[in-house]
Write a structure and sequence with these properties.
Helix content: 25-40%
Catalytic activity: L-methionyl-tRNA(fMet) + (6R)-10-formyltetrahydrofolate = N-formyl-L-methionyl-tRNA(fMet) + (6S)-5,6,7,8-tetrahydrofolate + H(+)
Order of helices and strands: EHEHHEHEHEEHEEHEHEEEEE
Structural class: alpha/beta
CATH class of the largest domain: Alpha Beta
Number of domains: 2
Protein name: Methionyl-tRNA formyltransferase
CATH architecture of the largest domain: 3-Layer(aba) Sandwich
Radius of gyration: 22 Å
CATH topology of the largest domain: Rossmann fold
Number of strands: 14
Number of helices: 8
Shape: elongated
EC number: 2.1.2.9
CATH superfamily of the largest domain: Formyl transferase, N-terminal domain
Pfam family, one: Formyl_trans_C
Organism: Cyclonatronum proteinivorum
């Protein structure tokens, strides 16, 4: 097949290498340049130009992230791809590009359960924030909707209790590599997985404000938030003395019992770690940018509502 591999995400690099290693396909790599990625604030960005060069593949940098530029339309229409594989491309694929292919466009979506449950934005982050123990990684046929096309291949992936979003991306990336040939054959044959029958739940977009810590919550709930928004994302936020700080790694405390008011620092350690009381249990702050944590400090919750 003549395939366009379209991505901006670092976690899909190995999937590209796996597809190339099969030797079955004529592959063209497409991505965006670093300046475009910076303007679009793309998290987990990878420049695919050097990756394509290492693999000996041709590369094309699109002019617009939303693929609306006439030069991009002309490129895709003249290339006459059999399939576009869009992994880690966080924009809708225009209908005219879908129609320019022979078989269609393959996209990916990993959500708490099989589609349509968990359509929408930030499904990997939501899966961790909501405390799910598994995620369903799916490759599907992209249509004009949002994650509404037929599923071509699917795998259930466990979420470990300490998995960050980055670790989960590694797991999902391997799943993509193992599923992609199956998805390509199913797309060509118009062979789709049965519908899950689950409710159509659309996940809302998340923003930095959703990463503000509420110390009234249970330690486990806060820890799930921290590991969900840890790098490559921005981390979770807390306040001290009217200033904002970032927490990127934590652990639910399972040592000797300690108590205090939610947000109170119970103990500070020489390496900068600190034990903080929450609404239920304590949380060990392991990686953060606050040098002022000491016993008795009261950390602030950067929230605007009054509901616990």
């Amino acid at each position: 097949m003549k395939i366009c591999f379209l991505s901006t995400q670092a976690f899909s690099v190995n999937t590209l290498a796996h597809l190339c290693a099969s030797g079955k396909h004529d592959i063209v790599v497409c991505g965006i340049d670093p300046d475009t990625a910076a303007r679009a604030k793309v998290s987990g960005y990878a420049d695919y130009a050097p990756e394509a060069h290492k693999l000996g593949l041709p590369y094309y940098a699109v002019h617009a992230f939303n693929l609306s530029d006439a030069r991009d339309t002309a490129f895709f229409e003249s290339s006459a791809f059999d399939v576009i594989v869009a992994l880690g491309w966080n924009r809708l694929i225009p209908d005219r590009l879908i129609e320019s292919t022979r078989y269609g466009v393959i996209g990916s979506h990993s959500s708490p359960h099989a589609l349509p449950f968990g359509r929408g934005r930030s499904p990997v982050v939501w899966s961790i924030v909501l405390g799910f123990a598994q995620i369903t990684s799916q490759l599907f046929r992209i249509d004009s909707g949002v994650d509404t096309g037929e599923v071509l291949a699917s795998r259930v992936i466990p979420i470990g209790p300490e998995d960050s979003t980055q670790i989960l991306y590694y797991k999902i990336a391997l799943g993509h590599a193992l599923m992609l040939e199956e998805a390509l054959e199913n797309l060509k044959a118009k062979r789709y997985l049965p519908a899950s029958g689950l409710p159509d739940l659309v996940l809302p977009k998340r923003g930095p404000a959703d990463a503000n810590i509420d110390w009234r919550h249970a330690a486990q709930r806060i820890h799930d938030l921290v590991r969900a928004v840890s790098p490559p994302f921005h981390g979770a936020f807390f306040g001290l003395g009217g200033k904002k700080y970032v927490l990127t790694r934590s652990k639910v405390w399972d040592g000797l019992s300690a108590s205090g008011k939610p947000g109170e620092v119970i103990a500070g350690f020489p390496d900068g770690a600190a034990l903080v009381a929450t609404g239920q249990g304590c949380l060990l702050l392991l990686e953060h940018n606050c040098a002022l944590l000491k016993r008795g400090s009261m950390l602030e919750s950067l929230i605007t509502d009054t509901k616990a």
